[in-house]
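Lecture 7 notes. Example A: sequence first, then its structure tokens.
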Amino acid sequence: MHCSSPKMVCETKIVADEHDAIHGTKKESILWSSPPSSAPLNPAEAKDVRKDVVFIREFERGDQEEVRRIFYEGIMERIPNTAFRGLWQQPKTQFLYALLTIMCFYMTKSVMLTCCAPLILMGARYYYSRKVIQNYLDCALHTDMADIDAYYMKPTGSCFWVAVLDGRVVGIVAAQGHEDENTVELRRMSVDSRYRGKGIAKALGRRVLEYAMRNNYAGVVLGTTAVKLAAHKLYESLGFRRTGQSEDYRLPGMSRSPLERLFFQIRHTRYRLQLREE
């Protein structure tokens, strides 16, 4: 039987312009022997803490608004990334769009319309990316992100943490236990865009791995639709290994209409970090 870990605060020192402040590289495959938990700081001690120190603590009800803001902004960033940058991951779609552009020329014999065709296609991609991702966001904000306490803090094997810098919540991450597979799923990781590049995401990821180790799970899994290479490098630096990939992933809220399939594609990648042999 797994049990939730006691409330604790993990202190991580973050230096302002240091891009890898948290120790751990690709060479460090498994290094998740957890340090002893430290007691929460009292107000007198908190005054002496430097402003470049990040604290990762468990979610509290008063964090709800900031947590939802960080999650919302992080998901909304994926609209242009999916619409435009994501196209480079879809060679078949590139070929199809090129074919449609050529067909436009042969059917209209208009150079102007042919030159406008790629712009129309990109506009349609942005429209459908926004539509699908907003539907997904609406679904999330009305399920687990609507009541974090009920979804993550109360169930056994799950937890939610926030990263706090200078009294402000700047990052979030969740762990959801799957008893049937003896794994923990890393979910909802996001860092405020103003505080990225300081090692906060890596510290949040390590917190989930420590939690899994303390509760005797065999592994940690995650699935991501992130387009940016930096996100995938982060997971690999934590020790995760890619286990699968889908080019035809269906997000919650998708209708799968012909136009949506034509103008919205997203790659879903699965990762796993094996903590111990079962």
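Example B, a different protein, same format:
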Amino acid sequence: MSEDIIFPIAHPYTANRINWMHGQEKALLVQEQQILMVAEEVPLALVYNGIDYAVMMVTPHDINNFILGFSFTEDIISSFVDLRQIQVTAEPDGLRADIRISAAAMRKVLARTRRPIAGRTGCGICGSDMESITNRKKCGVVGKQPDIGAVHKALENLRDHQVLNKGVGMLHAAAWCQSDGHILHIREDVGRHNALDKLIGHGLQNQVNFTEGFCFLTSRCSYEMAAKAIAAGMSAVVSLSAPTALAVRTARAAGLVLISPARATGMYVVSPAQ
């Protein structure tokens, strides 16, 4: 499962920056040309044993982690051993991942309706049919509320760990933190669902214990984010932005501790430990 960065993470573009200079009767507009680093996103075609499954828009980095995490949270594979081989190649307009999976995993691919459209960057379930969402496998976790001091510590240090985002400012991150708030692992992507899938994939490949510690998200926590965290067996999720109502109901039903939104000035525990 060798992995190469085939595309750059960001590209420089010239742009006219417009500044509003206040302090006068009328605001003074000042323009200057600057270089703006813009995050890259590329289509990644996921092909399981020769069967096209989906096309996802991703940041071209940690692709193997994403494929593993996506395959697991989509309930295609049950464990790391179900994924036999990944071969990523460059296409004229993106990437193609030829993924070899076990016979049991392939039966799941063949039994469900294939996604009819491409998965957009901002949505983890775009293209799914209604039945695949409503009949999603339900599972529970043992929620553990992290120490608030540990959450604050992770919040203070999170930006420093976003290596890819430096100079770009538009990549989401999903980080796994120890119980004391120390950030152990982090994955970044232009799509928030992709970042979480990458973190989960890394955890599966490296036997990360998702029951001890908490996941920190730089994005809002939607239903899909909560569902992915529950599928991975995480005990707690903290997100910078607010949750959706369905995410709260999903977390409470499964026992997942959800702290959202979390800011330097305070945070909300919307799904406490049962």
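Note on Example B: Residues 76 and 110 are 10 Å apart (CA to CA). The first strand starts at residue 10 and ends at 21.
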